[in-house]
Design a protein that fits this description.
Blueprint (H helix, E strand, L loop, with lengths): L2 H7 L2 E6 L5 H14 L6 E4 L5 H18 L3 E6 L5 H13 L4 E5 L20 H11 L3 E6 L10 H13 L4 E6 L3 H14 L5 E5 L5 H11 L5 H9 L4 H21 L4 E5 L5 H10 L10
Helix pairs in contact: 5-6, 10-11
The chain binds flavin-adenine dinucleotide (FAD).
Flavin-adenine dinucleotide binds next to strand 3, strand 4, helix 5, helix 6 and strand 6.
């Protein structure tokens, strides 16, 4: 089923994973997916790697997740390190496996570099990939958006302009980059609506698991850690358990407040670990994640 159709009837719950480095990690990933099925996610997804083998691994993991878990799987696809023909063949594979939804992205610059350089005869922006997919396939299409603006964008207005272009070319809903201050999400949604973007904008939340990891992730993706939260992390920087609990409490508060403001769904960046997300969802039960919204 297309996720855009699910969104017409209910608030969605979704989990994002990444492709593990080794076989043990793969088995743990599937255990985690199996465990989280009890929360009845509307879809799950696995990020697309930066090159060759991890890109192929993502496709195989998506196919396995789709076949084994019975949950709707949204395929990720980026423009990184591939010709248009290679990208087209991944879309063909998703299609032939019965995967009906994709999120289409540009991809990040390679590690240590500031700018994204498209492959020879590759796509340069998510807009190109959305256009190509819409013209050649019948997928439900999602794209990314950035409450605090994409770090490479000239400014927030130009970023919004290109976000709108992704929607005009066929993106049926948007998922946000992670953020830790809900005001950033509300302000972004207001600006998006004023600019004429009328598709659902699903907030993406990432429970903090580790202080140095989240500092690295936020500095790469241009998200801000609010000062109060940052001070708490600083105080407990060497105590991973305390940091994990701070992450659970913060994400739970964010999710509760977002749901009270009637968001179209919540997308959790799970980082392949089940402890924090389980604690958060157990506390959210009864708060109507995953049930019909008003
Ligand atoms: C929900 C979500 C899932 C993600 N999944 C993955 C994943 O699986 N694998 C992965 O590698 N990365 C993933 N990312 C990260 C993403 O690839 C990076 O944020 C990347 O730097 C930008 O991707 P994009 O699709 O937003 O790019 P784009 O929409 O192409 O935007 C990139 C930059 O170019 C500008 N721009 C956009 N279109 C144009 C245009 N036509 N002309 C000129 N400028 C333009 C934008 O303002 C922005 O600054 C994900 C991000 C999110 C939020």
């Amino acid at each position: 089923m297309k996720i855009s159709d699910i969104l017409k009837n209910k608030r969605t719950l979704s989990f994002e994973f990444f492709p593990p480095r080794d076989e043990q990690g793969v088995e743990r990933l599937f255990e985690t997916i199996d465990h989280l099925k009890r929360y009845e996610p509307d879809f799950i997804d696995i990020t697309y790697g930066a090159g060759g083998s991890t890109q192929r691994l993502t496709v195989e993991l998506c196919v396995r997740a789709y076949r084994d878990s019975g949950v709707t799987v949204m395929g990720h696809l980026t423009c990184s390190a591939q010709t248009k023909e290679m990208v087209h063949s991944v879309l063909k594979r998703f299609e032939s496996e019965g995967i009906e939804n994709v999120i289409l992205l540009r991809g990040d610059p390679p590690q240590g570099e500031d700018t994204f350089v498209p492959a020879e005869d590759g796509f340069s922006h998510a807009t190109d990939l959305v256009q190509h997919t819409k013209e050649n396939f019948d997928f439900g299409i999602a794209a990314a958006c950035y409450p605090e603006a994409h770090p490479e964008s000239l400014d927030a207005d130009s970023d919004l302009y290109y976000t709108k272009m992704k929607v005009e070319q066929g993106a049926e809903f948007l998922i946000t980059q992670l953020f830790y201050d809900n005001e950033d999400y509300y302000a972004f949604v207001d600006r998006a609506r004023q600019s004429g973007i009328d598709v659902p904008i699903i907030p993406g939340l990432m429970p903090i698991l580790n202080a140095s990891q989240i500092r690295r992730i936020t500095s790469l993706c241009g998200a801000t850690i609010p000062a109060g939260l940052d001070r708490q992390l600083e105080r407990h920087a060497n105590d991973d358990r305390a940091v994990r609990q701070i992450g659970i409490d913060h994400t739970l508060r964010q999710a509760q407040e977002l749901m009270a403001s009637d968001v179209p769904g919540i997308h959790f960046y799970v980082l392949n670990r089940r402890y924090s997300i389980t604690k958060i969802l157990d506390n959210l039960q009864g708060s109507s994640v995953g049930v019909t919204s008003s």
